Amino acid sequence: MNAAKRILGRLRPTLGRALLFVVLLLVLGGAVTWITNSESALGWIRGAVARSTSVVLNAVGQGTSVRGGHTVASERFSISVVTACTGLFLMAVFSAAVLTYPARWWAKLAGLGIGVAGLYMLNVLRLVCLFFVGVFLPQHVDVTHLLVLQSLLIVSALLLWLLWVEKVAHGSIRKS
């Protein structure tokens, strides 16, 4: 019985953090769900992603425009920014991971700011890549969209979190 108590005693902080992570996922997931059900908030976010994507594409000579508030279009191809294309859900998971990690608040705020901005930029880059696949390899759009780029974005979020832990949060760890 003493061995079980010792093991449970060692696991208690980890279990507490795991529970906190789940609670934060539920709270942030609820917030994202509320945003996605608010046409004005979601429309603004979808439009911002579409405009950012169009700016990048135009910087490399693609001659795109944003139509209907959330469709990036050219004469060659168009993509529509739907709810799943905003990156909100991935940003919520990333934010929950940052907030759960035992770091000081300044490190968490830095992680949230840099991480969410970084994920936004990576998401725009994902849409830019998808646009080019649509232009040059249209038969591969579905696989590229649903498997390749989505997986790369998820792995990028994990790597961004690990980088934050190593470079920022680790030095600020507070003892529980």
Structure description:
This protein is mostly helical and 176 residues long. It has one domain. It has five helices and three strands; from the N terminus they run ααβββααα. The chain has helices at residues 2-37, 39-59, 88-100, 105-136, 141-169, and strands spanning 65-67, 71-73, 78-80. A three-stranded antiparallel beta sheet has the order 1-2-3, covered by helices on one side. α3 packs parallel to α5 (141-169). It is elongated and about 70 Å long. The model has no long low-confidence stretch (mean pLDDT 92).
Into which percentage range does the β-strand content fall?
A: 5-15%
Q: What are the segments in which pLDDT stays under 50 over at least 5 consecutive residues?
A: none
**What structural category do the secondary elements indicate?**
mainly alpha
* Number of helical stretches of at least 4 residues: 5
Q: What is the straight-line distance between the termini?
A: 25 Å
Task: Domain count, please report it.
Answer: 1
User: For the report, how would you describe the main beta sheet?
Assistant: 3 strands, antiparallel
Tell me, what's the shape? Answer: elongated
Task: Please tell me the overall pLDDT.
Answer: 92
Helix proportion range: over 70%
β-strand number? 3
Strand order of the biggest β-sheet:
1-2-3
Order of helices and strands: HHEEEHHH
